[in-house]
């Protein structure tokens, strides 16, 4: 019986020790509760290795850099949402060792949100955790290192070029519906060729009288001669022009270089006009300039070649099959 008591006491001591060490290994800290940022963010500063990128909200629109280029509003919204909606998952270090987390000046990304003169939140971002699903972060005036949900550096870091709005030609739906004239110009063997397309009601009277082709009442577009036009090709062209985005902007190309382009498109309607000029392809992309961009830009070949077409594709005259 004495042995049984001794054995029972030993079991109780063992279970107590186990419970003690289990409790000791548990999380015994509370993560900071980040305050809700309800004030409107109107300035963002990104800093990495001594280089700064500043975004400002001006007259309801985001601009980036010293020249105040229009910024990509979706990209800016993502930055604001990520920083405001930050979710901490663990406390990683209270003792420093910032080098191992890439939270030193040469490697970290610092993102600061401002509302007027007030600093709303400053977030210092290091490398990803081993799982790649979380990121090491720090806050202003807090020496601790935390883990936050998400791949933050990839989502938030961007250069001025990456943050610029790449939309170089935009035609709203109501204006697009009012387009009634298209002029296409292209250089062939050093000589210019021109094709003019009209909606029937806008066909010049003098040209309509000269036309030997009877007008087609249900045709939406006609050539200057009165020949019907392939409507689907025109629709495709207008769709491409209505929301045209470039690959990047060209810093070292003068606007004057586009005076005699390889290909030009001009669309008009309702007293407004929109144009796009393209030079010959260079290494798989086309230098271009639009009426809505003050700077030349690059169009990738797959996009430019949806616009550059042989004039013959616009003809809706069906060729008779052999034997007819």
Written description of the protein model:
The chain contains 8 helices and 19 strands. It has 2 domains: 43-163, no CATH class; 167-314, no CATH class. The termini are far apart. With 324 residues, the chain is of the alpha+beta class. The chain has a 9-stranded antiparallel beta sheet with strand order 4-3-2-1-6-7-8-9-5. The chain has helices at residues 2-25, 73-84, 152-156, 160-163, 173-177, 205-210, 231-242, 301-304; strands at residues 43-48, 51-58, 61-64, 69-70, 88-93, 109-115, 118-128, 134-139, 142-149, 167-170, 181-188, 191-198, 222-223, 243-245, 248-249, 263-269, 272-278, 285-290, 297-300.
Order of helices and strands: HEEEEHEEEEEHHEHEEHEHEEEEEEH
**Classification by helices and strands:** alpha+beta
Instruction: State the total count of DSSP E strands.
Output: 19
Residue stretches low in confidence (pLDDT < 50, at least 5 long) are 18-26, 213-218, 319-324
Give a brief description:
The protein has 324 residues and is of the alpha+beta class. The protein contains 8 helices and 19 strands. The protein has 2 domains: 43-163, no CATH class; 167-314, no CATH class.
């Amino acid at each position: 019986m004495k042995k049984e008591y001794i054995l029972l006491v030993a079991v109780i001591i063992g279970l107590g020790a186990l419970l003690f060490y289990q409790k000791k290994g548990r999380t015994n800290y509370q993560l900071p509760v980040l305050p809700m940022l309800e004030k409107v963010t109107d300035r963002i500063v990104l800093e990495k290795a001594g280089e700064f990128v500043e975004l400002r909200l001006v007259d309801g629109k985001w601009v980036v850099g010293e020249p105040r280029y229009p910024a990509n509003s979706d990209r800016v919204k993502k930055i604001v949402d990520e920083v405001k909606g930050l979710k901490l998952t663990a406390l990683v270090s209270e003792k420093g060792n910032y080098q191992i987390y890439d939270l030193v000046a040469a490697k970290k990304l610092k993102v600061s949100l401002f509302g007027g003169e007030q600093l709303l939140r400053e977030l210092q971002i290091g490398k990803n955790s081993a799982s790649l699903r979380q990121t090491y972060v720090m806050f202003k005036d807090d020496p601790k290192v935390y883990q936050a949900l998400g791949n933050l550096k990839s989502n938030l870091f961007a250069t001025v070029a990456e943050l610029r709005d790449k939309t170089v030609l935009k035609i709203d739906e109501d204006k697009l519906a009012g387009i009634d004239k298209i002029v296409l110009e292209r250089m062939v063997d050093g000589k210019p060729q021109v094709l003019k397309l009209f909606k029937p009601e806008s066909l010049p009277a003098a040209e309509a009288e000269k036309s030997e082709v009877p007008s087609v009442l249900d045709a939406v577009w006609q050539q200057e001669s009165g020949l019907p036009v392939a409507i689907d090709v025109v629709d495709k062209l207008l769709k491409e022009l209505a929301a045209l985005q470039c690959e990047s902007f060209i810093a070292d190309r003068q606007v004057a270089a586009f005076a005699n382009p390889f290909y030009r498109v001009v669309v008009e309607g309702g007293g407004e006009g929109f144009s796009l000029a393209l030079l010959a392809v260079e290494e798989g992309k086309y230098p271009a300039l639009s009426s809505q961009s003050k700077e030349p830009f690059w169009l990738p070949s797959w996009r430019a070649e949806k616009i550059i077409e042989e004039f013959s594709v616009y003809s809706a005259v069906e060729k008779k099959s052999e034997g007819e």
